[in-house]
Design brief:
The structure holds 2 protein chains of 2 kinds.
Chain A lengths: L2 H19 L2 H9 L19 E5 L2 E2 L3 E2 L6 H11 L3 E5 L9 H10 L4 E4 L5 H9 L4 E5 L5 H13 L3 E6 L2 H9 L4 E4 L11 H8 L7 E4 L6 H9 L4 E4 L1 H4 L4 H18 L11 E2 L2 E5 L5 H15 L2 H15 L5 E3 L1 H11 L4 E6 L9 H15 L3 E6 L3 H13 L2 E7 H6 L1 H9 L3 E5 L6 H15 L3 E3 L10 H9 L1 H14 L6 E5 L4 H7 L9 E7 L19 E5 L1 E6 L24 H8 L3 E6 L1 H15 L5 H19 L6 E6 L7 H7 L5 H10 L8
Parallel strand pairs in A: 1-4, 1-10, 4-5, 5-6, 6-7, 7-8, 8-9, 9-10, 14-24, 15-16, 15-18, 16-17, 19-20, 19-24, 20-23
Antiparallel strand pairs in A: 2-3, 11-12, 12-22, 13-14, 21-22
Helix pairs in contact in A: 2-5, 3-4, 3-11, 9-11, 13-15, 14-24, 15-16, 15-20, 16-18, 20-22, 21-22, 24-25
Chain B lengths: L20 H11 L4 E7 L5 H13 L4 E5 L10 H12 L7 H11 L2 E5 L2 H7 L1 H10 L4 E3 L9 H10 L2 E3 L1 E2 L5 H10 L4 E4 L14 H11 L5 E4 L5 H8 L4 E4 L1 H5 L12 H20 L4
Parallel strand pairs in B: 1-2, 1-9, 2-3, 3-4, 4-5, 6-7, 7-8, 8-9
Helix pairs in contact in B: 2-4, 2-12, 6-7, 10-12
Classes of the chains: A alpha/beta, B alpha/beta.
Protein name (chain A): Multifunctional fusion protein
Pfam family, one (chain A): IGPS
EC number (chain A): 4.1.1.48, 4.2.1.20
Amino acid sequence: MSVLDELVAGAVEDQRSREQEITLDELKARAATMPAPLDAKRWLRRADGIPVIAEIKRASPSKGFLADIDDPAALAREYEQGGASAISVLTEGRKFLGSLDDLDRVRAAVDIPVLRKDFIVNDYQVWEARAHGADLVLLIVAALDDDNLQHLLDLTNELGMTALVETHTREEIERAIKAGADVIGINARNLKNLKVDVSKYSELADNLPENVIRVAESGVFGSVEVEDYARAGADAVLVGEGVATADDHVLAVERLVKAGAKVKASEETPLAEHEGPYFGQFGGRYVPEALITALDELERVYNEAKVDPEFQKELKRLNQQYVGRPSPLTEAPRFAERLKEKTGLDAHVFLKREDLNHTGAHKINNAIGQALLVKRMGKTRVIAETGAGQHGVATATVCAMMGLKCRIYMGQVDARRQALNVARMRMLGAEVVEVTLGDRILKDAINEALRDWVTNVEDTHYLLGTVAGPHPFPAMVRDFQKIIGEEAREQLQDWYGIDHPDAICACVGGGSNAIGIMNAFLDDDRVNLYGFEAGGNGPESGRHAIRFAPGTGELGMFQGAKSYLLENSEGQTLDTYSISAGLDYASVGPEHAWLKDIGRVNYSWATDEEAMEGFKDLCETEGIIPAIESSHAVAGAYKAARDLKEKGYEHPVMIINISGRGDKDMNTAGKWFGYLTDDQAKALEANGASGSQTA
Amino acid sequence: MTHATTTPSGQPLGISHKPSPCRQLFAEFKADDKPAFIGYLPYGFPNPEVSLTAFKTLVDNGVDIVEIGLPYSDPVMDGPVIQAASQIALNNGEKIAGVFKAVETVANAGGVPLIMSYWNLIYHYGVERFAADFANAGGAGLITPDLIPDEAGEWIEASDRHGLDRIFLVSPDSSDERLKIVAKNARGFVYAASRMGVTGEQATLSSSPEQLVARTRAAGAENVCVGIGVSTPEQGRTVGQYADGVIVGSALVHTMLDEHGHALADPGAGLTLLAERATALAEGIHNARK
């Protein structure tokens, strides 16, 4: 006799002895006097959360005794207060130590659906559930043959109740569906080791009809399992021990409800309007508590500004009159020729010219937006990090224009290879602090800026330059950068009469220019999106900043957000390397991590060599000197072209985002291509302006 | 969740109702009307062997709860002294698996072992795996400087299963709402930062920690300890008058560094200085209310 057989036999024996006291007809009469059952289906699926069925559970055959529950009504009320959508009451008395008395007391205590959980195999038990006020009953497929399952399911529905039909295998699921079950409980416990296996759940729950509500039934303990099941597509969860044995039942249920809501919000579409703090499982606020007040304030002020027409008007005015927006969309026929020579693809290529913005890069779009917020918050001091120096220059520029105090943190390695930009920032009145800690590159500058912010948060705003960091930065910076893609789409239509591009290419360091040009096209499946990371000396070399390729980045928390991260076997951040300071970063914006995971953007990389080749190609064919960062997008266009060709495109329209201009990179380029005499090179060497070496 | 620790029969562990080690300690200290001395050193500084001796030295010289720091490449809450010490530890081969030895050392010496770690290290090791290994070694709880309760779901679950304390931070500008969230989710005690900023010694303390302690208690926290910037016995005495515990870090680390931020050539001399500094601080803190 299996455990289940034994439990069923015991339950039936107990039912028979109850029937001696109360006949089926008496039960039916009593059921008729009960208020109508609640439609549990309305409670078990919602767009903005994962309903929690919380169980009154004293013991189980596998775990033995769990908790004294003297007052099930009080416990049920606590569950309800914590946000439970239904209460499950075990009425089996032998192994689970439950009773119908528990059911009565719970029913009287709460206004949400109540589930009678027992080993139900006959009509009497179903009528009994109704007579005691249940809205839901559990039917276990493994305990019933097809006819009996069908019959009890029909009876349950006739009585206005809902059946939670429990299954363990795909075969049982098929039987449940055939019988017409519309709430299916899936028990994904691995019977070998009793562990819960979410991948097994996904396998089982795959291809269920849309109208079927999926309840994850096994092993839900805390928010980890709720998140896992929610991401695997469960509509609701049933939890017993995790809430019944908690010290604080309200808090325990609350945590589960929050975890479910978090997952739902993190997957909201349309993609272009997705808001933080979470992008899929990425993002969040992994920062010291000391920054939470400032982040909350920033989020609040930004949300107000976003819908304030005066703010938008001022932003637009500055973009036009100060930055010089819109930046043109330039046709690049001679580059397209070269692309054809190299790849055989006859593409129509356009360049989005962020290099023509004031200060020479896309960074100013975000700097202006945030500086307006600084004014709005009444803060007087701005700090920022910079890698290539473009964001530092943009920040120093807007601070000069708006009369704000400005300090820029820059890794010493970066400061040396971008000495001219350091001079520019100082000209603009900013204080430039060379960071000599860690690897002395972008991430170390961000660390120092964060320490400054923690210390001076009262009057200081941290003007983060990319779509990374804690919420609300990723979503906010994206919003200030998405004008790039919106303009490009409009220009393509208005200037060139082309409805939409077939492909977008952008470089990805933190990812702000890429998200800026991609946002407008995220929900348009006709547009292939390509992001290119800094390949350095190639993925196998260990000297690169590729986070997305297999064997490179891992999931981790870095500088405020969960994303992909280059780290060693100990979880320490790895040194990164790229010829371009602006892409030389160990992590990547959380939205990109999400877009990678859901397969919306195709991420690849360009090595130093490929990027410098792209740099040269664009100079020679179009008379445009791109930043070395942007050259990764140019080089990437060759890779994208090969991919498009493979997909069958013959004359695709491609847009490459030229995120910045390359004047700042002439030292590096001059040396790379041997355009400098030995003396000149030596002079630059002495100045330290060479690759990753400092003097 | 597939990594969840299981019982011998293969069942996932339930909620441990093991009493909080920190809470027990504070109950005893409160009975004596005495604040606890919480001392910090990074594990592996200046190297793994010496650091074990250093932890024992702390407990032998009056430290009640030891905050064992896990060195991290990007410690955004730490000032120059602890940054330097962490870097030295990393350069000298610190490995996270070795920290459990430090936990055992502290426990065997009679101290309460806590680990202070930036979250990525724990996340990368595996939250459940870390909790299990840490609890097995006799660990009491984690201080998480860059993990707020809102992001701590996995840690709350693992710490519940293993009966570990969860020490979250609050700072002087935390709103009452935030204090409540922290107090509700904390276990053991709440770590109140004496000022806005990163770790490091300072000549004078403002009056804000006293207010913050009072506000944090009002928000529901049972025990509140004050750290960041407490470096002298006099400061320890002042803070100990109102806080349940006084946390000292940089001032202890400092004894084992030279003026250039390098490890002392003679670690023995550093340990002697460490013992002296700990004794003096313990004297100030433990007698705060006498």
